[in-house]
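Pipeline run #58 for the internal structure catalog. This entry was flagged by the ingest filter as a single-chain record with no existing model, so it goes straight to prediction. Upstream metadata was stripped on purpose; only the residue string is passed forward. Reviewer on rotation: M.T. Logging verbosity set to normal.
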Amino acid sequence: MSQSLTLANLDYAVADHVAEIRFNRPDKRNTFTRQMAVDIVTAMEAADADDDVRVVVVTGSGGHFCAGADLEAAMSGPPDLGDAYGVAAGDIQGVERDSGGYAALAFAQSRKPVIGAVQGSAVGVGATMTLPMDVRVIGESTRYGFVFNRRALVPEAASTWFLPRVVSPGKALEWVLTGRLIDASEALAAGLANHVVPDDEVESRARGIAREIADTTAAVSASLARQMIWSGLEAGSPWQAHAAESRALAERFTSADLLEGITSFFEKRPPSFPMNVPGDVADGLVERPAQRPEGL
């Protein structure tokens, strides 16, 4: 089964259980717009609701991931609060929601593993939107930049929560306060990148990881594990993690997936796990990450 969507700023396609989101503004180095935020949320909602999707890969066209906000569009005038973004995103505590956060939280809330294939420029929102992704594969020439202070802005896309957890508070502060560019080796050493590969191998490595997840693991188990690890960062006690794991294990112990996993092991063949996400997962089995609290 495969399906595709052609949206204003990106292409979305599904093949062999892997969804690919490809930013498609190569003439602008895939700079970010309010419409792109809407498109990202649309694509992630499609992936999340599709039982055929087991993994999502996010990348950019033209050798760049995303070179930050489209400043030309931003300088053309105040945002139209009645546009597609303003209507879709709404407000938070009486002000319009940051469009980077609207997009990034769609990745954070995903039931499916998300892999970033990051080439070229990943600056501003192009950097921060990758933080909720589970695996980041970057090219040798990739440059990250949390440049907000150099533009008289502040961090966005919920990055003041994500970045200190992905790297460390000290490294996050250094990068944000200076706004300097970060090369691939520094990103790898700090944990911002999982893998650094030659530029022309970024997408193939990301797809290889996606293929390994889709082909060898139980979709429900991968989904539950992803959600529990991210939600665990929000928990106040290891007992909350213990409770979530106990609930998930109780479901897994009686599942058709487990029977197939054990049977395939003894038959010395690759497993063919029958259960899918979200169709075969009970609502509320584990806490989904990055859910909006009451009052916000």
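catalog note: The longest strand covers residues 10-15.
catalog note: The two ends are 39 Å apart (CA to CA).
status: ready for reviewer M.T.
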